[in-house]
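2024-03-11 09:14:02 DEBUG pipeline.ingest accepted 1 chain
2024-03-11 09:14:02 DEBUG pipeline.ingest length=45
2024-03-11 09:14:03 DEBUG pipeline.predict start
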Amino acid sequence: MIDSYGIDGARMEAEGMGYLAPIASNLEETGREENRRVEVIVLGE
């Protein structure tokens, strides 16, 4: 987002949350693949 859209890195923060909010079971590889994702929440301009 910094390189592609010119967004100032100081305006963003990242937190690893996948282990807290899985969308599929981690018991199988297909479920682990579904849990590898990126979610973006826009708070305002």
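2024-03-11 09:14:41 DEBUG pipeline.report Residues 4 and 44 are 19 Å apart (CA to CA).
2024-03-11 09:14:41 DEBUG pipeline.predict end
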